[in-house]
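Repro:
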Amino acid sequence: MKYKIVQLKDIAGCKYAFRSYDYAKTHGFNFDDYYVVYEGDTDDLELEFGSIDANHILESLFAIFNNNHPKDYKGHSISVSDIIELDDMAYYCDPFSWTAL
């Protein structure tokens, strides 16, 4: 499965950086504020979970890109307001879960 790590272009200038999706929706959330910082294929990773369930894959990617990210990764650790795309679905990192966009 293909994935993309998508982060805000201007964290300091964004009103909803590091905020929940509910907050972002009411403060100007826009995909144009983001850019792709990394692309890959889950087949190339040792995922923490054996399931193909999207939530398990998201949690595994979260762990990988916070604890032991690939050497060519240039983004910051995945945090609230970041987005992970799995194939054609996008998921917003909320404080305690993932929100499908």
